[in-house]
Please model this.
Amino acid sequence: MPNEIKTKDDSPVVKERKTDEAVEAGLARLTPERIKNTINQVLQKETGPRFKAYVETCMHCGLCAEACLYFLSNDRDPAFSPAGKVKQTIWEMLEKKGEVSIDFLRRAVHIAQTQCNVCKRCSMYCPFGIDIAYLMLLVRRICHKLEITPLYIQDTVNSHSATMNQMWVKEDEWIDTLQWQEEDAREEFENLRIPLDKEGADVMYSVIAPEPKFQAGLLYQAATIMHAAGINWTMPSSPGWDNSNMAMFTGDNEISGRIARTFYETAARLKVKRIVMGECGHAFRSTYDVGNRWIGWAMPPFEVVHALEFYHELLTSGRIKIAQKFKKTVTLHDPCNVSRGRGLHDMAREVTNMLCESFIEMTPNREHNFCCGAGGGVINCGPPYKGERMVNNRVKAEQLKATGAEVLIAPCHNCHSGLEDIVHHYDLNMEVKFLGDIIYETMEKKIYKPGE
Amino acid sequence: MEENKSFDWSTDLKEVPVREWEDRFVWVEESHVSPDGETIASIVNVEEGVFTVCENGETWDNEYDKAWSLRPLPDGKFAACVSSDEEWTLSISGDEWENWFDFIWDLQVNQDGSSLSLAIQKDMEYGMAVNDEPWGQMYGNINEMVLSDTGSVAAVVQVSPMAQADIEVFKQGIFSCAVNGKAIEKNFLNIWDISFDSSGKNVAYGVRLDRTDYTIVVNDIAWDKKFQSVWKPVFLSGEDSVVAPVKEGGKWALYKDGQPFWKTQYNQIWKMVVSEKTGNIAAIASNKFGKWTIAQNDQPWNMTADQMISDLFYSKDGSTLVAVLKDKGFWTLAVNQKKWDLSADKVFTPCISSDGKVVCVVIERQGQYFLAVNNIVIPNGYDFMATPVISPDNTKILQKAVKDGVYQRLIMSTDKIL
Amino acid sequence: MNAFIDFIMGPMVWIAFLIFILGLILKIVLIIKDVNARESYIYSYMTLKHSLRSIFAWLIPFFPQSTRQSPVFYSISYIFHLLLFIVPIFLTSHIVLVNEAFQVSWIALDDGLADILTVMVVLALVFFTIRRVMVPEVKYLTSTKDYILILIVALPFITGFLAYHQFFLYRPMVIAHVISGEIMLILIPFSRFSHMIVAPLTRAYMGSEFGNVRHAKDW
Model:
């Protein structure tokens, strides 16, 4: 834990360590003038009555604290409570009219980028429904404009801006990877295809960049599921294939919007009916709720179907049949962005029960789930913050341990990686799986024919 | 569409059986039809790991380990990216380019088919090739490739190396616009949306100057003004002027050569099209959040779509402006401000007669393809349809469709439909 | 001085009520105007159904998860907010004043009961104060202003109680009661007390985002 020092008003202020080279380099370049102008520009010009209402209505009651995994995991340290984070950032920026110090900003960026998953659980514990995640995203927006965003997540945003994918995947690497997975999958499924740029297909399947970069096997699995289910599908060979969006988590709304536009225009170019996406939560949030709004699409111009919902459809319609249910005991982590963010939690349970013999609930769950601690761009801030990310989500570890399950299903990439870290750090001896992993393992490997 | 004159407009029906292909080959991929409708072609798998293309039942002379990106060419031939022994090249109806590469993609064909371009990778270096001519200079990465009607190509290239997660180097600007292989001098954080003028000599594009400032660059000269964001610029026909949507004070506006152009500030405006004939400019725009319309010369259409307007086309004479849009869950067209009655699951690229009087388009409803002409859907459903063609005198429509395993090239009389 | 006291005890009461009511109306109007000008996109997501669904869910005692996790606070808070309205509105001496002015009256609380309820309001405020001092996450958020707000609410009740019982200084106590009541009324639209009308709006918006867009519950 960072050292605590006491200030005049007796509230503990955490003395901030220099954790991140990009933050430090950015801070070194700042002038008081730029800090003040940027903060005031964002808080005055880019907000509206919503921000005003949130700031002027909060009664400082502290009830939001109970919602926050950071607060609970850090022995109820008030500095980690949602309103406590607002106090350490927005309140002071407002009070000092933007004239804040370098030390203050170092702390502010640390809080906003790595001590809040913008999971919105606290909005369900605030009697007024104040959107504290929105306030943290405003702080991130200010940090983005001041160029003090943490290194690793900024690099992903740079990659997005230059390549329209998160991981600097070059255009040929993307196509080559798909063709390679297609070829491999043909060993198992004769005639299997990953149809590229098939105009007029029913489904455009989209994934996040870590799949071609590190987890190509997931593309393989998805292709086998699509093939077995007899879906008329396609994947784009052009940029627009990556549905992830880290820019929305650094407050780079301009790049975030550009990503969303490229994504939907790719679907429009391919003339598909709907878009199915892999098991990723933040990508769903970006395409369903965030990126589209910046562009001016009130709701997504194409139906966006999260993998969870798609699997549900395949299983209930009989397009995918389960040969033998998964035997190990499983528990299910509700990814914030598709449960609290899209209400798919009941469907997730139905899918899990259709696939697995023994399902144990973890509590709290559904809308009240605890975030994996990796979401909202936190894991993307990278290695400098990994240690504290483990400390900051002790409650998740306790929650997982209490289930006693052998397998932890996490239908979201961020959750998956974050929970693997947690499982390892707290020595929980659980296997983390995607739903797709289990479907692939348990399904009948034959091609769906209507009426059979 | 002068080339349409040479098409066979007198034979009512020509048929090519395609179902039998499925017996001849292990699998047959999606169909593509030549512009004149005389040829239907698909990539086919001959046996494990052996691919070729079947055109009207005849396979290409050569077989390949892989083939993808099949595309009909204006002269009736077909091109595809093909691979043998882990090397790639372009094959045009079986005739390969002389140059082979480690990878190729993004096949582009200009309007008259005189130029074909590809993005290429060789020894982990990137560039483009036009008509079998690779760039002399290769780069660290390539994106945003464009081919002009004159055969010039341009792309965004990475001109200096960047170590993993080196945001300081990124901040210096490592991307440049390369025209015909030669990178223009200035580097930027980002470059997007390169546009050529009609001569193919001048380029304009959007750039990001630093973390938050964007502007438009024309031939390496940036506009003086900086903006919150920019979209693709276009050259006006017959002049050197460049028009681009820019974001200022939270609103979008159209600027011309760095100065305010249209008066209205929009919630969103992009995808301008310019009529060469009339000089009119139209763009997809939104005045009210979540409502989309078309603005022509800064005048909004008396029509909105609540989901998306995806494309915009002028007829050759500039009299007709056609928008492809999605409203209340279904796709349709709007022609000169009037929304068509049809509602489809998919609407493909429309075909507009030169005088703008006839508009036809392929649509899909519940898995069946239909042809719609001037807001009338012809009831016969098909398994597949390619983009139709209207005869130069507007009296006939060439329909290209597959039904029950047979490709039909059908000439229909416009009178009978309307 | 007497003229001033007459003003405080007479016209100022009505002025305070006017500022309170018009201030709240003005606040709503300004918010709506501001939303129309700067954040009109929220209308794309707000629905009456989901707004009311959320507001009502949060009005039902111990229905939202949050209320079940902090039962003591919420119990006291529910009762406090109810009494904040019930006690002054149904107090005999207030009804008498209204009756003198407008010849209307309504059912009154038994004075003894009103007395107990007044004490409960004050005790609730004492609880809130102790909570601000004792509970770390609340203390962390608390500044002098928060105590002043508690004091502003407490004063009319305390002075009213003391005046009613005429323990000492009856007249000054009545004057203090009226002044503190006026201050509270006047401050409502211009302080965080405005959560009285703003909170339903923020709740409605969050309820709509959850109900209409996210298809999830927000309680």
Chain C has a mean pLDDT of 95. DSSP finds eleven helices and no strands in chain C. Chain C touches chain A through 47 residues (CB under 8 Å).
